[in-house]
Amino acid sequence: MNAEAEVLFFGNLTEVTGESSIRLWDVEDTDSVEQIVLNRYPELRKQMYLIALDRQLIHTNRLLKNNHTIAFMPPFSGG
């Protein structure tokens, strides 16, 4: 069963995409979300970004269930 997900863009990524959020249907995992986003916004390929799933940074593909939130965020530094 594929899922529905909200995708958020932060920082300069909102300027690149022209969106602060979009909704995707029929997505299986975070890799498929990333591919859809990169196909829709090819300029994003030139940007560095991190991906979070439900407010947790992820570094590997994750399966999705309904109503996840996936965020594309520029790299950040903290102290």
Automatic annotation (TrEMBL):
Superkingdom is: Bacteria
Protein name from the UniProt record: Molybdopterin synthase subunit MoaD
- Extract the InterPro entries matched here: Beta-grasp_dom_sf, Mopterin_synth/thiamin_S_b, ThiS/MoaD-like
